[in-house]
Amino acid sequence: MGRLFGTDGVRGVANRELTPELAFRLGQAGAYVLSKEHPHPKIVIGKDTRISGDMLEASLISGICSVGADVLKVGILPTPGIAFLTRTLEVSAGVVISASHNPVQDNGIKFFSATGYKLPDSVEDEIEAIVLSEEKPWEVPIGGEVGRVIEIKDAERQYIDFLKETVGRLDGLKVVLDASNGAAYRVGPQVLQELGVEVIPIFDTPDGVNINAGCGSTHPEVLQQAVLEHKADLGLANDGDADRLIAVDEKGEIIDGDFIMVICALALKAKGQLVENSIVVTVMSNLGLHIALKEAGINIYETQVGDRYVMEELLKTGAKLGGEQSGHIIFLEHNTTGDGLLTALQLASVVKEQGISLSKLAQQMQRLPQVLINTRVNDKEKAMQNPYVLQKVEEVKRFLGGRGRVLVRPSGTESLVRVMVEGQDQDQLRQLAQSVIDIIKREQV
């Protein structure tokens, strides 16, 4: 068995790679490692709407209870909601069962520490070592020492109230909300309605298998049409576990994470509320973002792809706003992880406060042409280190000179290598990206 933990917890095809047996062992090892400081630990568990969530939840709970920890069960709730409750309920840890934007056959298990942050690599390594070794370093509890399950019936209410406290009223806005048939299908429409928004919800009827299916932040096409049909002020799309947001302006144009960060950063700076006058982005953010923020005198810290690395840089620099082009955006003043609904409220609040359409707000950044092509590989690391691939990348860099850039990186959750090229001419960029992809494919044979 290879390494279990990727950049966002343990993921795999449910019942084949991420099995009930593995979930049980993760529950045992996770509860043991994360609860060493607590004599009778408590762990919050939530999930998205995938059909496999019930199966994995049952196994995970059994594993946790078998080492003497109690489970606080909250049911279906966005991943950032679990991070929030992990802090506020003062428990030992939190666990989310979700594969985010991945298709229904996948699922995942992700841990939060007692402070609501994702686990550092060292702690994940400790959990993984126990799972893979089949060791049981804990004393097996019996009788009254076995853990119990406690249902938290007002979890949604607590999370909604928390979200509402981060913004003022939003009366007068009309919003189409795509809940991706996922974890935000109830709380998303409700929090917007309670803030005075006229909400048109779509993809809010999960059946266990339709999560992320042709909808959500990775498939916003239907949302774009719905915004135009309803003459809405904006459209908002979450992914399956609602930790990311992609928006659509009143003209039906997509507003990705880069635009959202620019809009929110400039609004915060104008109010004197951009902490450290800084923002953290990844290497995938468009050069247009860098230009817009630098012209405004905002400092930019750049890190590798992955919201966990954005978080590490936020904590290191003291900045409070950061995120990814994909829509994982962290408002660290409010929550300890990317939060799609929180981001949606912050963006809608800027539209409301400034009385300016989202399309005009987006004009504060001019996107440079960017091409991203993915290719499936047998071995990500081998492909990344191949000398012919490296040689081709250097050729593209020399060709672009100072007029663009090329980035080749492995996916953190799938067997893919991603090639991104940015510059002035879209057709030329596509040819350059494809030339790198062709070498990667050739070297896989």
Any chance you could write out the topology, listing elements then pairs?
Elements lengths: L4 E2 L2 E5 L6 H15 L7 E6 L4 H15 L3 E7 L2 H10 L4 E5 L8 E8 L7 H13 L15 E3 L3 H10 L9 E5 L8 H8 L3 E5 L18 H10 L3 E5 L6 E5 L4 E2 L1 H14 L7 E5 L4 H9 L3 E5 L3 H11 L3 E3 L5 E3 L8 H15 L3 H5 L7 E7 L3 H6 L1 H14 L4 E6 L5 E7 L3 H19 L1
Parallel strand pairs: 3-4, 3-5, 4-7, 8-9, 8-10, 13-14, 13-15
Antiparallel strand pairs: 1-2, 2-6, 5-6, 10-11, 11-12, 15-16, 17-19, 18-19
Helix pairs in contact: 1-2, 1-4, 5-6, 8-11, 14-15
In short:
The chain has 445 residues and is α/β, with parallel strands linked by helices. The protein has helices spanning 20-34, 52-66, 79-88, 121-133, 155-164, 187-194, 221-230, 257-270, 287-295, 307-317, 340-354, 358-362, 380-385, 387-400, 426-444; strands spanning 5-6, 9-13, 42-47, 70-76, 93-97, 106-113, 149-151, 174-178, 198-202, 234-238, 245-249, 254-255, 278-282, 299-303, 321-323, 329-331, 370-376, 405-410, 416-422. The protein has three domains: 5-153, Alpha-D-Glucose-1,6-Bisphosphate, subunit A, domain 3 (Alpha-D-Glucose-1,6-Bisphosphate, Chain A, domain 3), CATH 3.40.120; 158-362, Alpha-D-Glucose-1,6-Bisphosphate, subunit A, domain 3 (Alpha-D-Glucose-1,6-Bisphosphate, Chain A, domain 3); 370-444, 2-Layer Sandwich (TATA-Binding Protein), CATH 3.30.310.
